[in-house]
Fold each of these.
Amino acid sequence: MNLRQKREKLLDTYRQHDEQGAYFREKAVCGPGCAYCCTHYGHLDVTTLEGLIILKKIKTFAKAEQNRIQKRIFKNKRDKEAKKPSVCPFLTPDKTCLIYEQRPFSCRQLYSLKICGEHGPLVHPQAVAQARETVKRIQQLDHTGYSGHLSYVLALLEQKPFYRLYTAGGFDPAGIAGFGKSHSLSINRQSAGGKE
Ligand code: SF4
Ligand code: SF4
């Protein structure tokens, strides 16, 4: 399966998850402008396949905006490395998402039955279990990739040797072992039992 086919399959997987979870989401209190989850929730896991889609979206913005986004991604990475809370680099000042159509599954699966506060979102346990299964399917689909916090995965994709290998379908965990270990990236095929 090439990258374009994987992206199509990923979108299908999002759609299937949305259908499965419609009952739970109908009861959610989430709505535009409510963004505690984008500012305080902290850890935002993405797969490399999702990171690639986000990078492609960034390139559609005007150069000045791209530079602003890159600075925010860099700040997010630095904050996370220093274990400090950090706002998502894609959250706009009016609390909307700059990449809403391309947002990763971590954001798609998140909703709450009560407005979030210190204790984070309140999610039905069955919906949590469904989301875990979907994460597994996404990791199996991205079986030559990795998973981890958004700005770490984007930084990995910015490494040219890795980018070239990954987009050509290559797989060499030893080549990124140092960065992967220091940034707690997981190997998708190990996490999800994907194809060898
Ligand atoms: S998950 Fe929480 S903070 Fe995010 S939109 Fe829903 S209620 Fe608001
Ligand atoms: S990508 Fe968008 S929805 Fe997800 S945390 Fe960032 S601003 Fe929020």
Note: The chain is about 55% helix and 5% strand.
Amino acid sequence: MNLSEFFHSSFVNRHSSINGMDKPASLYQSSVGQKVLVALTGLFLCTFLVVHLSGNLLLFKQDGGRAFDGYSEFMSTNLGIRFMEFVLAAGFLGHILLGIRVWMYNRRCRPESYVMSRPSQNSSLAARVMFVTGSVVFVFLVVHLKTFFVPSRFAGNIKPSMYRLVSTAFADPVYAGFYLVSLALMGYHLRHGFQSAFQTLGLRPHRRTLIDYVAMIFWLFIPAGFAAMPVYFLWAAHWARAR
Ligand code: HEM
């Protein structure tokens, strides 16, 4: 199946027929199954954000970047971490491709008339712009990997100081501004995504549950923690120039 067939083929709902006999559709084939997979990959990516933020907090250690560079060296040489990078890439790819497919399916199923479907009454703004916010996060990720991940992993023997790379990149107001806008939209994406994932998995039976407070850690505090990094280095560069 090519990419176009992947996005345009219909879902099989609950059952498919072989030789006239009904058989249950696989998790991958049914619309509900695909939503479950989007939810599970999304939650997996949330766990990555916790780990990534924890390591990056070393940037705030006032030691000229020694601890962060040591951590970065470990990340780029440890075999277990290198293996996990493939799992992570598969998680991102699966989440993006299946997310687009579910989004296209929902669009096809929506009543034609905008007035009839009343989007503003039936769903929140965060839910309706998931495709847009997700696309921004994707662009952010491509720029981010090109700036940090590629030099970290493919620089050969002259690997640069990651601390210096991060602090120099964030001293640029345009680059730092791009991060802040992207992180705000990532938070908005996670705001609906996290709650929706638990709803899909049947773990959020009511509108206001404990999950919504846990969600706040992911859509508010984690993006804010990441945002503190460009803000900090932009501020540090400003004071270094002013002195
Ligand atoms: C704004 C603060 C951030 C900083 C300072 C930062 C820094 C870095 C650095 C230095 C690397 C290179 C690899 C390494 O040394 O381990 C990296 C890799 C990566 N970053 Fe970020 N990052 C930030 C935010 C994010 C966010 C919000 C995401 C997710 C949307 C993200 C996703 C990734 C991924 C997928 C990798 C490659 C896998 C890995 O090495 O763990 N980063 N980041």
Note: The pocket of protoporphyrin IX containing FE is lined by residues 52, 56, 72, 75-76, 85, 88, 137, 141, 144-145, 148-149, 152, 162, 166, 179, 186, 226, 229 (CB under 6 Å).
